[in-house]
Design goal:
It is a single chain. The chain has 100 residues and is mainly alpha-helical. The chain has a single domain (9-99), classed as Chromosomal Replication Initiator Protein Dnaa, Chain: A. Helix content is 72%, strand content 0%. The N and C termini lie close together (11 Å).
Length: 100
């Protein structure tokens, strides 16, 4: 476990932005079109599941959002991962990439 690289919120944001073809700046922007908002939620979900950061710290890293926004993102993405096998696959690929 210790041998695996430390996963950071910044690393997650970069990997998600690349995978979903959005700009890194969109991860922290206030803009809310679904094309940006959903990848942002995925990055919040991964930040929650792959780092030891608090909900507040995660929210701060995504443009000063509050912890409730992070909780909502985690719930939404968890549901979508069950409904969309293709999405689950993409997210698992990001996780693998981050752990390398």
């Amino acid at each position: 476990e210790e041998a695996s690289r430390q996963v950071t919120i910044d690393g997650i944001q970069r990997a998600v932005a690349e995978t979903f073809d959005v700009r890194l700046a969109d991860m922290i922007s206030r803009r809310r079109p679904a094309s940006i908002a959903f990848p942002r939620q995925i990055a919040m979900y991964l930040s929650r599941t792959m780092t030891h950061n608090s909900l507040m710290e995660i929210g701060e890293s995504f443009g000063g959002r509050d912890h409730g926004t992070v909780i909502h993102a985690v719930k939404k993405v968890s549901m979508e991962l069950i409904k969309q096998p293709g999405l689950k696959e993409r997210v698992e690929r990001i996780e693998t990439q981050l752990r390398r």
